[in-house]
Structure formats: C-alpha cells, structure tokens
Amino acid sequence: MSGTQTHVIIVAGAGPAGMAVASALSKAGHEIIILNRDIKFGGLAEYGIFPSKLKLRGGLKKQYWELLQQKNVHYFGNVSIGNGKDLTVEDVRGLGASSVVFTIGAQGTKAIGVEGDSAQGVFHAKDVVYHFNRLPGFGDRPFEMGKHVAVIGAGDVMVDIAHWLIRYKKVERVTAIVRRGPVERKYNPKEIRSICANMDLEGIKSEFERIKDRLSKVGQNPDDVLRVFTDEFTKCEPKVSETKMGFRFLASPKRILVDSNNRVRGLEMEDNRLDPKGEDTVAVGLKQYYEFPCDSVVFAVGDRVDETVGLPYKNGMFVTNPNKTANDPDDALFQAYDDSTGQVMDGVFLAGWARKASEGLVGVAKRDGDWCAEVVERYLTTKSGGKDAKIVLDHLHSLLRNRQSRPVDVNGLRALDVAERSFAGKADCIGEFKFAANQDMLKYIEQGRM
C-alpha cells in the first residue's frame, strides 16, 4: 500500500481486467468504486467465452462475488460511460477519485472494408458471441444464418462460432475462410476438440490438394502439414449434428455477393500465395477471383475500441503515453494520453482490451489488470490522500439521480441471481438461464428488494 494513505479509485468496467485491478487495489486497502455498463459483472467472462465452459465461468463468478462483498468495494452496474450516456469521461474524472482506470473492453468492431458488408446475413463475430451468451440487446435478436455459413478467420473466436453453428444451430456446412495457409492457423489445438467430430475430412484433403503447390513453394511439405493439421482432431467432443466443417485456405474475401433482396448469396474471393517474411509468411493476392457460394458471412477478425466513449482515440485504440516514464518505463503503456495537448491524462489509466483490443482472453486480461494495479500503486505514492470515499460516493449517487439512471448494487445482483436460479429449468443451449433484456433484469431486481 502507498504508505498509510488510503485512496479512492474508480474502475470503469467489471470484466477480468477491471476485476483484477479492483481486487489488487482493494487488498491494498483502497476504496474501490466499480462502474459497469452491464447490470452483471464479468464482461468477457460472462458474455465472451463459450457458454458451455461453465466450470471456468463458475470459478470466476465465485471470485468476483467475493470481491464485491468487501466493505471497501462499491459496485454500480447498469451505468454506461460515454458521450450521451449515464456519465461522461469528464463526469467520472470530476468525482474526486485519486485515479480512474478504464477497463471497458473493445466495444467497437473493425471496419471490414469489403463491398456489400451491409447485406442481410453479414455478421460481426462479437455480435454472434454476445447473442449466444445472452447479452441484453443481442440475446433476443434473431440471427438467421441459412444453411452454409462462411466464417472469416482462423482463431479461437472462429472455433467458438463454428461450435455454436454446429452444436446449436445445426446448419448444413461451416467453412472457415483463411487468408494464409493451415500452418499459420491461430486457434488453440485444444479448442478444435469442440468441433473436430464434424470435420469434413475428404473436403479437407481435397482443399490441401488444391493448395499443395503454393505450400511447397515456401518450403512447407503438404503431406506433413496435412498430417499435423488432422492429428489435432483427437479427443473430439461427441457429435450432435450432421453439420460438415471445412476450410478454404489462401483466400481473401473481396466482395459480398447478394441476391435481389440484398441477402448474402456468396463471396467473391481472391486466391493468395504465400511469400516468406522473416521467419513468418505473408499472403499476397494473385488477382485471380472466383465465387464461393454461402448463405451468411461472419467476420471473426478482431475488435476495436468505441471512439464515442470520449477518451483520446486513434486507429481503433485509445491513446496511451508514447513516452517512457522515469520511474518505470512500462508505466507509460497504461497511462491515458491526450495527443491533442501532448500531455498525460493525470491519474487516468487503461487496462485489458481497452488498452490493447482483442489481445488474449480471460487470463491475459487478468494479467493486464494485475500489472495496471502495480502501475496505479506507484502513481499513488506520489499523491497525498485523496477525498473521503463517502464524499465521492455521495457525488456519484447525486449525479446518477439527476440523470435518472438506474444503477444496480450488489444487493440488486443478489436478487437477480435468485430470480435467474428460479428459472434454471428453462435453461437453453447456453447451459444456464439468463434474462436477455435489461428491463426483465431490473423488474426482478426491484421485486427482490420489496
């Protein structure tokens, strides 16, 4: 702890990074105020990991409940931050806390830049993940995928989306569209177990046959690559549908093809070759195009932060300090920076996906939060004790009342938990019951308090 000084710290965002920051700084004796856009805490852990991973989610929930029950931790759910939201960045900074840590994730989606990307049947991976995890605003929205779904990407998110399409939507075919080759795939081999029972092995062999000459040209032995690729299809989860899962390698989507109703009917693709680039490879377009029929397209190509929040923003990211700091060079990585003035935003820090969009999942976000907490602690040693927590909390309550906001505290979360458990028999594909609308949650929270 910074001497014997106690400080008030606001953590905006209650996902793995924010909860790690809050946990570390509350253990150091500081007063923590958590502001969270969603009613429920958890962020990526609640709405971003595959729903069937109930053991992982359950363990995280237990830790987070324990944190929120600490006397020096104050939770405000259903409070959004941004221009035109419950609070602006300036409001939050003006509450009088010694520091503010933004761990609000990456709520924007990367611009795809493909002609036709507004057609019916084009989806962003994040929206699909939010849908099957029942995030309010997404959970009750229809996602009509058709029979054949093309998923653009070769990472773990592609696998999660394929898993949902195979296990729950039971579509006829899923094809992962990969810009480079099989060697450059990004998913964790353990994750592929969720879908490998549905692999179209004959289709995969013919796909390798199609690209074998291009693999050989960069010194990759096609037979060896195929063997390593398919050797990962072990310990597969039991097959529950007849969906066929395949891959299309060395392919870049150039245009989304639509029918007369502006509905996806296929992709115009460009064939790629691989060129060596240091120890890695790069995909280079061959200017050879073909049509690939499909009924919908999901872009699993990463995220960017939401520029409407009101923090300094550039190239899909909030801006951090480009200059090394004197006491610890790495501290700069977490400091918010106003590049219009060339000044560090004093006492404002970033962690998790708000600092580095789409960088790793729960474990990486937690480590980033732990690291950020150390940076904040070093900063607090340079500050005398801040305002009393009661003053800051009274100011916050007053602001939220004036904005007619409906914040949810830990008692409200308990009432919601009781209500959702009472509906457990109505659990759907996600393995647990969740309300998909904020209004429903607020109704049961208010009933539970009566």
What features would you describe in this structure?
This protein is of the alpha/beta class. It folds into 2 domains: 8-107 and 305-408, Rossmann fold (3-Layer(aba) Sandwich), CATH 3.40.50.720; 111-301, FAD/NAD(P)-binding domain (3-Layer(bba) Sandwich), CATH 3.50.50.60. It has helices spanning 16-27, 44-47, 54-68, 89-93, 125-132, 156-169, 201-216, 222-231, 362-380, 389-402, 410-422, 438-449; strands spanning 8-12, 31-35, 73-76, 99-102, 108-109, 122-124, 148-152, 173-177, 244-248, 251-258, 264-277, 280-293, 296-299, 303-304, 313-314, 317-318, 335-338, 343-350. It has a 6-stranded mixed sheet with strand order 3-2-1-4-18-17, with helices on both faces. Helix 5 (125-132) crosses helix 6 and helix 7 (201-216) runs antiparallel to helix 8.
The fraction of residues in strands falls at: 15-25%
Give a count of the beta strands, DSSP E runs of length 2 or more: 18
State the helix count: 12
What best-fitting shape do the alpha-carbon axes yield?
globular
Class from helix and strand fractions: alpha/beta
> Number of domains in the coordinates?
2
End-to-end distance: 40 Å
Fold-level CATH name of the largest domain: Rossmann fold
Fraction in helix: 25-40%
Give the radius of gyration.
24 Å
Low-confidence stretches: none
CATH homologous superfamily placement of the largest domain: NAD(P)-binding Rossmann-like Domain
What is the second-level CATH architecture of the largest domain?
Answer: 3-Layer(aba) Sandwich
> What is the residue-averaged pLDDT?
92
Main β-sheet, in a few words? 6 strands, mixed
In order across it, which strands form the biggest sheet? 3-2-1-4-18-17
How would you spell out the order of helices and strands?
A: EHEHHEHEEEHEHEHHEEEEEEEEEEHHHH
